[in-house]
Design a protein that fits this description.
three-stranded mixed sheet, elongated, three-stranded antiparallel sheet, 573 residues
Length: 573
């Protein structure tokens, strides 16, 4: 829920787009009233376990291979502090402030579900640190993605305890965490029973990075459809391959969506292209695959991104602790007639006493609920999905690089070699194409799935892991490379159009050409090219290519084809 500059977390409805916005700054965090009730109720269950002298994993036992060691009451706070200090063993470059904000916000969202057993006052300190951008130093390496992202989340908690380093929003420098907290009127968190475990047990690093990757992938994939249209025009390609009958015959959602977009942006009777009309009777039967098969190749990328987005969105709003705290009277289920209370014996009659801690006899129902050890911390879901994402979005750069080759190769384009006048004296796009080829080659290695690997850790107690942290970091690298390759294609296509003047393309694509020319001039000779690539990449990162053509994407009404089932009808964007 977004209200008055705040996003109010409830543990169930945070979206990837909202999380990315939280990372960018400008929005603050709070919790809904219902979420605060769940947090309070969950903590009462933990306190009831302690009051009754029961033994529960992570509350008054050691961790991992030390789970059978019972900890005395006077050492419970020390147990949690030691957990954070020992697990803060990450290495590598720190997460950027933006990604650290995302990590903080996402862990807060999980805590808002009430399954972690954290005290409300501790969670409030968590939110206060976010709202003031007091951001702990979190190294990006060290997680194997089961028992969650222990090392990075431990670094996050360590800073909030006033230990280690923290990013100071006053000057953007890392300093002693305690000093940064004090300078901004905050106190270090003092951990209570279970709270150290509550702050580190989950998949939030994988998922936060995954949310950014999927949002950026969604944007660049959609804009790649637009850029491909510009390239097709510059290469005098045919629009016949995008006829709705062809795509209704193979009715994959993404394929139909891309074909629809291309029909909206390319030549038609309602929005003609002089370039298209100039080669209408050229005699060419069909185009190369990189032009003719754009809907089929780009389409499966869109479908994969949507699949991954659903997994990431679910993971963002999932309880990933171990153990998990459940309350019999969960406010979320008050209106659900099928909800029979977590404490109903029919729900847990096979759970061993050593794993199940019933607190039903707590006075006046306070703390009524139970605690169960499970495996929701395992990162296999986001790890696998982000490996899929990397493989899928890479294909955008793969086919884009081949279109760049066609643009710069005079034997394929009929245009001046490397899109430059006075070739020989000028090299034009010769090395820009090499850059695209280099990034595509790097992507091939990065697309090897991390999640096919597993190494046993914690004395074989944690004997299968997801390697999701690397899957997430790789996915982001691949997305960034794709953004750069598509930026080079955009520049090359705009330059190619200059050699077809005075002919004009469609209004939508002329608008796109004009957008690019606001920040990157036509090449009349060689110049320093790297800044131009960065400018084009910025247009894509800021979604300006999409925004420029968005109004044109409703040019066609959905088409119902004769003798075709409703599911095969062409859908609008």
């Amino acid at each position: 829920m977004e209200k008055g500059g705040f996003i109010l977390l409830d543990g169930y409805t945070l979206t990837p787009e909202q999380l990315v916005r939280l990372g960018q700054g400008g929005l603050k965090l709070g919790l809904t009233e219902l979420a605060w009730k769940r947090v309070k109720a969950g903590r009462q269950v933990v306190d009831s376990v302690l009051d009754r002298g029961q033994t529960a994993y992570g509350i008054n036992t050691g961790f991992g291979n030390f789970a059978n060691v019972t900890i005395s009451p006077e050492n419970l706070a020390k147990l949690q502090e030691n957990l954070i200090r020992s697990h803060a063993a990450g290495v590598g470059q720190p997460l950027s402030p933006e990604r650290t904000r995302m990590l903080l916000a996402l862990r807060a969202n999980v805590l808002a579900k009430g399954h972690s057993g954290i005290r409300p006052e501790t969670l409030q300190q968590f939110l206060d640190a976010f709202n003031l951008s007091c951001l702990p130093h979190v190294p990006c390496q060290g997680t194997v993605g089961a028992s969650g992202d222990l090392a990075p989340l431990a670094h996050l908690a360590l800073g909030l305890m006033g230990e280690g380093l923290m990013w100071d929003p006053a000057d953007g420098q890392y300093k002693a965490a305690k000093d940064v907290l004090t300078a901004h009127g905050l106190c270090p968190i003092v951990l209570g029973a279970k709270e150290g475990l509550a702050l580190i047990n989950g998949t939030q690093l994988i998922t936060a990075l995954g949310a950014e990757a999927v949002v950026r992938a969604q944007r660049i994939a959609a804009q790649a459809d637009v850029v491909a249209c510009l390239t097709l025009e510059a290469l005098k390609g045919s629009v016949r391959a995008f006829h709705p009958y062809i795509h209704a015959a193979r009715p994959h959602s993404g394929q139909q969506q891309v074909a629809h977009r291309m029909r909206c942006l390319l030549h038609s009777s309602s929005h003609p292209s002089e370039i298209s009309q100039s080669h209408r009777n050229c005699g060419r039967v069909q185009d190369s695959y990189t032009l003719r098969c754009i809907p089929q190749v780009h389409g499966v990328v869109h479908d994969t991104i949507e699949f991954v987005r659903n997994i990431i969105a679910t993971e963002m709003n999932s309880g990933t602790d171990n153990p998990m705290v459940f309350c019999d009277e969960d406010p979320l289920h008050d209106e659900d007639p099928s909800f029979n209370g977590y404490g109903d014996a029919t729900h847990h009659h096979e759970i061993a006493d050593s794993e199940y801690f019933n607190t039903h006899s707590a006075a006046e129902g306070q703390g009524s609920g139970f605690i169960i050890s499970g495996g929701n911390f395992h990162g296999e879901y986001p790890a696998k999905s982000l490996d899929y994402l990397a493989i899928a979005i890479h294909e955008i750069s793969s086919i884009s690089e081949r279109r760049i080759e066609r643009l710069v190769n005079p034997a394929l384009s009929g245009l001046p070699a490397f899109l430059t006048p006075d070739g020989g004296l000028n090299s034009g796009f010769m090395i820009a194409h090499c850059t695209a080829a280099a990034l595509v080659s790097e992507n091939k290695g990065l697309c090897h799935p991390s999640s096919v690997d597993s190494l046993s850790t914690s004395a074989a107690k944690e004997d299968h892991v997801s390697m999701g942290g690397y899957a997430a970091r790789k996915a982001l690298q691949v997305v960034e490379h794709v953004e750069t390759v598509v930026a080079i294609e955009l520049l090359a296509a705009c330059q190619a159009l200059e050699f077809l003047r005075p002919l004009k393309t469609t209004v939508a694509l002329e608008d796109l050409h004009s957008l690019v020319r606001t920040c990157v001039a036509e090449w009349s000779g060689d110049r320093y090219m790297a800044p131009d690539i960065e400018q084009a990449k910025r247009l894509l990162r800021e979604n300006k290519v999409w925004d420029t053509v968005r109004q044109h994407l409703t040019a066609f009404a959905p088409v119902q084809l004769p003798h075709a089932p409703a599911s095969a009808a062409e859908e609008g964007v």
